[in-house]
Design brief:
This protein is of the alpha+beta class and 420 residues long. Helices cover 30% and strands 26% of the residues. Helix 1 runs parallel beside helix 6 and helix 7 packs parallel to helix 9. The longest helix has 13 residues.
């Protein structure tokens, strides 16, 4: 069942534990297609709707899948299924599944990618990666197909941009390719290092040379593995901003400090007080000052983060500027913000927010256009005296494990209402 969220002004207090990272675990699940042996993933965020869809996709490919609280077990398939016949909601991760299928079996067919529509998110770069390794890639109706005679062949891949997905696809496909693959201009970020670490435990031969290149020497087969996914830095950032804008005190356990070094610098400079005790972050007595950011490759502020920073900026007194050079169409949420009284305007690839403090935010009905826009609107709802109804809140549940349960445990005024 799909839900809407109704949120009202809240004072949060308590402790929350960060779940496994959405942007990492989906790639680890995909990597399980490269082996015939069992893969066990710990710290698994089992309520994410995108993860649940991925489970069903793996089952459709013949895999045995079971979950027990935060443990996911993917068993070997009884027969090789290379075509993902699927008529449900698709996710963009199907592009990576295609790379795994063609390198493992010589053929793969997957639904054209879904997920959030963030400006121009075409898949030409993924096609180029697979073609560089020797695959023939073509569309067949609503499916994308890749085929190769024998095995993929190692090659030099020069990525035209630091694309996370293309880097991942190149690594996955090259792991079982014949020969050596050099991937230049990769996007090195925590989720990719997590994928590399798991693949290496499975027997892959991968060397990461910083942001310059990744070298993959293909092997003939990969083994099973038991692996623990990294904590979700997007969830950590969300709870941090929630505490700051609501003048609350929250302890955030399993906080990925190292993965958020640059965003934390900007937030500290903008008034957020962050105290550290081992792997726990304590947020209290914070202020909210204007912020100026530009998105960029890791370790900078990535595009996923900018709607959350926009929610933060909406609560400051003064002018904030956000520039997103990656996804030029990702300011659709600005119109939804304006329904709640946020003074914002878009000019090219820049978003200007003139904040007037927290007390001027209005009540109203808004729509979550995508996952991160949805969470940004939910954050603003925590400041509304009369409440904010966020339609399409299922978007939030695509990427936040047990979000409603965690929010209520912190004392938030929030209701989950069935969507009409």
């Amino acid at each position: 069942m799909k839900y809407n969220y109704f949120l009202k002004k809240s004072k949060l207090n308590g402790s929350v534990k960060i779940s496994g990272a959405k942007n990492a675990v989906l790639k680890l699940m995909t990597a399980s297609l490269l082996t015939d042996e069992k893969v066990i993933i710990n710290n698994y965020p089992n309520t994410l709707s995108d993860a649940v869809i991925h489970e069903e996709m793996l089952k459709a490919l013949g895999r045995k899948v079971s979950t027990e609280t935060s443990i996911l077990t993917i068993g070997e398939s009884e027969e090789s299924v290379t075509d993902l016949i699927w008529d449900g909601r698709s996710i963009r991760n199907t592009l990576l599944m295609l790379g795994c299928l063609v390198t493992k079996y010589g053929r793969g067919a997957v639904p054209l990618p879904g997920g959030c529509k963030l400006g121009e998110r075409k898949y030409d770069i993924h096609v180029s990666v697979l073609e560089a390794l020797g695959a023939k890639v073509f569309e067949d109706g609503n499916y994308l197909v890749a085929e190769v005679d024998g095995r993929l062949k190692g090659a030099r891949i020069d990525l035209p941009m630091r694309s996370t997905g293309a880097t991942e696809n190149a690594i996955l496909a090259a792991s079982l390719a014949e020969g050596v693959t050099e991937i230049y201009n990769p996007h090195i970020r925590p989720e990719i290092i997590d994928l590399v670490n798991m693949l290496k435990l499975m027997g892959a031969n991968i060397e990461v040379h910083g942001q310059e290149k990744i070298v993959v020497s293909g092997v003939s087969a990969l083994s099973g593995v038991t692996y623990e996914v990294i904590p979700d830095n997007m969830e950590a950032l969300t709870w941090l901003v929630a505490a700051a804008i609501t003048d609350s005190t929250i302890e955030i356990e399993n906080f990925p400090f190292d993965d958020l070094e640059v965003p934390l610098i900007f937030l500290r400079e903008s008034g957020v007080k962050i105290f550290r005790h081992k792997n726990t972050a304590i947020i209290k007595d914070s202020n909210v000052y204007p912020i100026d950011i530009s998105t960029g490759p890791y370790p900078g502020i990535n595009s996923d983060m900018q709607p959350i920073f926009a929610a933060f900026a909406s609560c400051a007194e003064g002018v904030s500027n956000i520039v997103d050079l990656r996804f030029l169409g990702r300011y659709g949420y600005a119109e939804e913000f304006s329904k709640l009284g946020v003074d914002c305007s878009v000019s090219g690839n820049a978003l200007k927010i003139t904040g007037h403090g927290k007390s001027v935010l209005k009540s109203g009905e808004v729509t979550a256009l995508d996952l991160r826009a949805g969470i940004a609107l939910a954050l603003l709802g925590l400041l509304s005296d009369d409440g904010v109804l966020v339609h399409n809140s299922w978007q939030i549940e695509r990427g936040y494990d047990q979000f409603f349960e965690k929010l209520t445990s912190l004392g938030a005024n929030v209701e989950r209402c069935p969507a009409e």
